[in-house]
Amino acid sequence: MKAFAYARPSTTDEAIATFSSSSGAKFLGGGTNLIDLMKMGVEQPSTLIDITRLPLATIEEHAGGIRIGAMVRNSTVAEHPLVRDRYPVLSQAILAGASPQLRNMATIGGNLMQRTRCSYFYDPTYAHCNKRLPGSGCDAIDGYNRMHAILGASDQCIATNPGDMAVALMALDARIQVLGPQGPRSRLAGDFFRLPGDTPNIDTNLRPGELITAVDLPPIDWATGGHYLKVRDRNSYAFALISVAAVVGLDSNGSIRRAQLALGGVAHMPWRVPDAERVLIGQTPGDGAFRDVAEALLKGAKPYAHNRFKVELVRRSIARALEAASTRA
Ligand SMILES: Cc1cc2nc3c(=O)[nH]c(=O)nc-3n(C[C@H](O)[C@H](O)[C@H](O)COP(=O)(O)OP(=O)(O)OC[C@H]3O[C@@H](n4cnc5c(N)ncnc54)[C@H](O)[C@@H]3O)c2cc1C
Ligand code: SF4
């Protein structure tokens, strides 16, 4: 690991000023992803700006929904009564990720910014990775690509976003609050993440030097009908092959009034297609409706040599997740 400077600001303004004054700096949350990448030589920050002491560690009611500070640890969010009762899909998604020890360390901001688990990206002995080394090529496209994308990929990168929480935030239309040298701004989760295109080295639309300060969950009273399904190789401590975050609201006659769903493990960002969700409105929950929405979500899917199974797995996972969410609605 390369030597680096360490700073521990106590205010957000100080954190942003420290970032601006040190070229090659990185914010440090729980360190559960960044430190691993530094050990592998993938990340080589000049300065680590430890933001864990910033006053951004509260969960409170806000504008009819909930505001979660960026420094709140994953376990705290998952177990918080406001989250568990009103947004169970978020609680389930966080608890499906990593291990209890990691969740105790990982912060909300750091979780949103975690990098892909493409093994060619993680291992600098592989020479071709456009995400790690722009312009070098992509060893995954003709390599072992079982965990990779089937939607929204480019000829530059077929990596997936590995997060669970992000999939639930996408389904819930969460808003990410950020503070940067130009002041505060916010983005919907759908505008926060990005597809790889020809700049796969850039994971999100966060600008350099911007700090995530909070995540806002909107006031959707029907989010109590929510379910997170994660399909993985082992039942714990494994990243998703496919995941589905589904939120469903039913009318008094049992037909679907509202539905929002996002997929994990299929693209460079959590995958959501609002037009596909409209297919469900007014339908009775059941195989026919679930199959229609799955086909709409899978439009344009392009599997690679080792991940063809994901297409059928998406169909089945969507049906299971929507069935569970409808039962709870
Ligand atoms: C063995 C293992 C298994 C795992 N399994 C899963 C899993 O199944 N599902 C899952 O979702 N995750 C999984 N993870 C990933 C884990 O969730 C992330 O490592 C964690 O959420 C990152 O949070 P952190 O606070 O530790 O971030 P850090 O490692 O501190 O930071 C990660 C990145 O975020 C940036 N950053 C941190 N905070 C901010 C902020 N407020 N504003 C702007 N940038 C910021 C940092 O600069 C860095 O680039 C696993 C990790 C490990 C090691
Ligand atoms: S899929 Fe993306 S992250 Fe993986 S090797 Fe290719 S360019 Fe790198």
Give an account of the 3D structure.
The protein is α+β, with helices and mostly antiparallel strands and 329 residues long. Among the domains are: 5-51, 2-Layer Sandwich (Uridine Diphospho-n-acetylenolpyruvylglucosamine Reductase, domain 2); 223-328, 2-Layer Sandwich (Enolase-like, domain 1). Helix content is 30%, strand content 19%. It contains 13 helices and eleven strands. It has helices at residues 12-21, 34-40, 74-79, 81-86, 88-95, 100-105, 108-113, 119-122, 165-171, 189-192, 274-278, 287-297, 309-328; strands at residues 5-7, 25-28, 47-50, 59-62, 65-69, 175-180, 183-188, 211-217, 226-231, 242-250, 256-264. It has a five-stranded antiparallel sheet with strand order 4-5-8-6-7. Helix 5 runs antiparallel to helix 9 (165-171) and helix 12 (287-297) packs across helix 13. The chain is globular. Bound molecules: flavin-adenine dinucleotide and iron/sulfur cluster. Iron/sulfur cluster binds next to helix 8. Residues 26-34, 36, 51, 70, 97-98, 102, 105-107, 109-111, 113-114, 162-165, 211-212, 237, 239 line the site of flavin-adenine dinucleotide (FAD).
Radius of gyration: 19 Å
Number of helices: 13
Give the N-terminus to C-terminus distance in angstroms. 50 Å
What top-tier CATH class of the domain at 223-328 fits best? Alpha Beta
CATH architecture of the domain at 223-328: 2-Layer Sandwich
**CATH topology title of the domain at 223-328:** Enolase-like, domain 1
* Shape by Cα distribution: globular
Question: What percentage of residues falls in helices of 4 or more residues?
Answer: 25-40%
Q: Could you say which small molecules are bound to this protein?
A: flavin-adenine dinucleotide, iron/sulfur cluster
Number of strands: 11
Mean pLDDT over all positions: 97
Helix and strand run: EHEHEEEHHHHHHHEEHEEEEHHH
Major β-sheet strand ordering: 4-5-8-6-7
